[in-house]
Write a structure and sequence with these properties.
Serine Threonine Protein Phosphatase 5, Tetratricopeptide repeat, mainly alpha, 12 helices, 2 domains
Length: 301
């Protein structure tokens, strides 16, 4: 195989590997468009406990050799992921005494106190962390504060958004307050990603965040992606008549894309079979030519 052929094959293979997958999706207006697939889910990696323990031990050894607060802080962070909250809390309290007013200490202590169900203390530390670093977590910590304030209120009312957002009461979400939807989407996704590592369903607060996310994504992306968020809200235990109504509405809109999908599937099926047919014909012609040449050579001999 020559160099030119190798390069062409590589380009053909790589173009297939990195190509974006496009689908027919429905916008909230009812328009069906062919676009890159979007998702209403927030993905987070599963923790490899064994690997994390190895990293944790390595950080502890590094701290003992160097007496570096950075290593000590990172070691404590691994303990949070391993569920050793009290041990991690003691370390951060020690760090706070040695080097007060570090953003990482305040932020992680806030997380620990939330995880051990002390929202009042958690709120104080999270507010301090935001003061120390207003742009932390992409500026999304206002959501963390709202969640802690909701927990402190001991309310079980999810009839309104715990974030104070309002997307109307119509079957389709609206934006009557002219929110910056893209930024809201980014902030909620960031906070969900941080929390989903520690929190598994059911959890109505996570469900409420997913409901808000669905209301936003319906307007920024498409109804299929919004339905993924809505169904995830249900999975986490969030319940409301408006959620049910919006799932029905989004499904009706999503059904508009089905004929386009079916038509595309039929076209792809025909194309694939035509290609297969031409390939078989070409192979047959090639074999006949080869046989003809061999037959001519035998006759000549």
């Amino acid at each position: 195989m020559n160099r030119k052929t190798t390069i062409i094959l590589f380009l053909l293979i790589s173009s297939g590997v990195f190509a974006c997958i496009n689908e027919y999706r429905t916008l909230l207006t009812g328009e069906v468009v062919h676009k890159e697939r979007s998702s209403g889910l927030v993905w987070t990696r599963d923790i490899d406990t064994q690997k994390l323990k190895e990293i944790s031990n390595h950080l502890l050894q590094s701290y003992e050799r160097s007496d570096s607060i950075e290593y000590f802080s990172d070691y404590a962070a691994t303990l949070i992921y391993l569920g050793e909250y009290q041990k991690a809390k003691k370390i951060y309290q020690e760090i706070e005494q040695k080097s007060p007013n570090l953003y990482t200490t305040a932020s992680n202590l806030g997380t620990i106190y939330e995880l051990i169900n002390k929202p009042d203390t958690a709120l104080a530390w999270i507010k301090k962390s935001v003061t120390l670093n207003p742009n932390s977590h992409g500026g999304s910590e206002w959501i963390h504060i709202k969640i802690l304030e909701y927990k402190i209120s001991k309310s079980d009312d999810f009839s309104t958004s715990i974030l104070g957002l309002d997307f109307g009461d119509n079957p389709s979400p609206m934006n009557p307050h002219a929110y910056e939807l893209r930024k809201l989407e980014e902030d909620i996704k960031h906070q969900l990603k941080e929390r989903l590592t520690f929190i598994k369903p059911p959890n109505k607060i996570i469900g409420a965040l997913y409901f808000d996310l669905g209301n936003i994504i319906a307007q920024t992306k498409d109804v299929q992606a919004a339905m993924e968020s809505y169904h995830e809200a249900k999975k986490y235990g969030f319940e409301s008549e408006l959620l049910v109504q919006r799932i029905v509405t989004m499904q009706e809109l999503a059904n508009k894309a089905k004929p386009y999908k079916q038509q595309k599937q039929l076209i792809d099926f025909i194309k694939n079979h035509i290609v297969l047919l031409f390939s078989l014909v070409a192979l047959t012609v090639f074999l006949l030519i080869v046989l003809f040449i061999l037959f001519r050579k035998r006759r000549t001999v």
